[in-house]
Amino acid sequence: MTTVQKIKEIEDEMVMTQKNKATSYHLGLLKAKLAKLRRELIDPKASGGGGGGLGFDVARTGIASVGFVGFPSVGKSTLMTKLTGTYSEVAEYAFTTLTTVPGTVKVHGAPIQILDLPGIIEGAADGKGRGKQVIAVARTCNLIFIVLDVLKPLGDKRIIEGELEGFGIRLNKKPPNISVKKKDKGGIAISNTVPLTNLDQDEVKAILAEYKMSNCDITIREPNATPEDLIDVIEGNRVYIPAIYVLNKIDAISIEELDLLYKIPNSVPVSSREWMNIDELLDVMWEKLNLVRVYTKPRGLAPDYSEPVILRNGKSSVEDFCNAIHKEIAKQLKYALVWGSSAKHARGQKVGLEHILEDEDVVCIYKK
Ligand SMILES: Nc1nc2c(ncn2[C@@H]2O[C@H](COP(=O)(O)OP(=O)(O)OP(=O)(O)O)[C@@H](O)[C@H]2O)c(=O)[nH]1
Ligand SMILES: [K+]
Ligand SMILES: [Mg+2]
Asked: Which stretches make up the OBG-type G domain (predicted)?
């Protein structure tokens, strides 16, 4: 039996098994088995070429990258060409784009790399078409645009999400607040800091048994933790990436239909071809990228608002700011004066290297 067939068999069995107290251990085992089989599928050693592949890896430029994922002919290349001004072939037939096509769009002064990708189809993560290489590129992006055709958005959305999830990508989700500490002896200790609604002890035990973990401390700190969350933490190779559902071709539907589409969370309806609602798309994209603009103020002069230094949220200390300008500056720093939302007072605050900057702060560096 191939890995794909084994996966199918387990999925079928899970559908047939109703969850209750008597079956939860068995279901826990099945879920862990499934995760192990999926790992085999995406592991290049086990299946021959899960990586970028020839022509798929492109030089990374800009402060962050956005990958376009979707079925063929939903309008990915039309959007990419219009956003960046870089040509990517557009045509009515499926699989027009055959490899990664990079371009750049500047948003609020930050150069963002856009990666137009070939269309994928159901079964992509299992090795159909170029799906694996496409998803492998998406795995390395800071944001994913899931581009959907408004005429069939929901079915396509579910399939694409399934493909990305099968490849270890978690969309619009935080890493589970679960810790797993392996020990040499002492058996299994499960503790939860909150009551659990989606995970019981039998499931935890079954999953640990399947992974042959007989000595470990498990601490679960969120009420909605699922068996899948625990497996994700044990497997450890998951990536958590924000995503926007770009509902394209709204020029082809009515206003009433458009109102319904707005109910899909994290979605932005647009028409790439007719350039409709692209401003909202750029706003949501900026928000999801979670970048921090810092304006430099030379001593005695006005801040330079035209060329912000762009930092990532979580890496936006004064030290990160200095390093982004020149690697010697942090060593020479006496203090920095900061204005903006991270500063305590409106007249500015004197801070050191460890101070965390926020979006649109103004910084003046004083050297020793
Ligand atoms: N009505 C309408 N048609 C669009 C829109 N955007 C793209 N199209 C059309 O959809 C078709 C496919 O567009 P592409 O940009 O090639 O789609 P793609 O997703 O890059 O396709 P592949 O590279 O084959 O995966 C073309 O005929 C486009 O003109 C839109 O906003 N509205
Ligand atoms: K096409
Ligand atoms: Mg294309």
From this structure: 64-290
For ligand 2, an ion, list residues with CB under 5 A. Answer: 73, 91, 96
| DSSP designation for 342 | T
Question: From the CB of 251, is ligand 1 less than 6 Å away?
Answer: yes
- 209: three-class secondary structure by DSSP: helix
Query: Positive or negative CA dihedral for 76, 79, 83, 85?
Result: positive
As a whole-number percent, the residues of the chain with pLDDT over 70 amount to 96
Q: Does 94 sit in the ligand 1 pocket, CB within 6 Å?
A: yes
Q: Are 215 and 129 found together in one domain? A: no
Q: Is the CB of 162 within 6 Å of ligand 1?
A: no
Total of domains in the chain = 3
pLDDT in tens, 177-227: 999 999 999 999 999 999 999 999 999 999 999 999 999 999 999 999 999
**Is the ipTM of this structure higher than 0.95?**
yes
Same domain, 280 and 320: no
Containing structural domain, residue 130: 64-173+239-289
Ligand 1 atom closest to residue 274's alpha carbon, by position in its atom list: 31
Note whether 224 and 245 are same-domain residues. Answer: no
Task: Determine the Cα–Cα distance for residues 347 and 3; give it in Å rounded to an integer.
Answer: 64
CATH number of the domain enclosing 273 = 3.40.50.300
The Cβ-side half-sphere exposure at 197, using a 13 Å CA radius, reads 3
Of ligand 1's atoms, which has the minimum distance to the CA of residue 271? 31
Q: In terms of domains, do 168 and 93 share one?
A: yes
Q: Which of 127, 143, 167 is nearest to 38 (CA)?
A: 167
**pLDDT tens for each residue of 289-325:** 999 999 999 999 999 998 899 999 999 999 999 999 9
Two structure tokens written together for 334: 């006496």
Structural tokens at position 299: 């001593």
Residues 146 and 256 in one domain: yes
pTM: 0.89
Alpha-carbon gap, residue 61 to 302, rounded angstroms: 30
Would the CB of 131 count as within 6 Å of ligand 1?
no
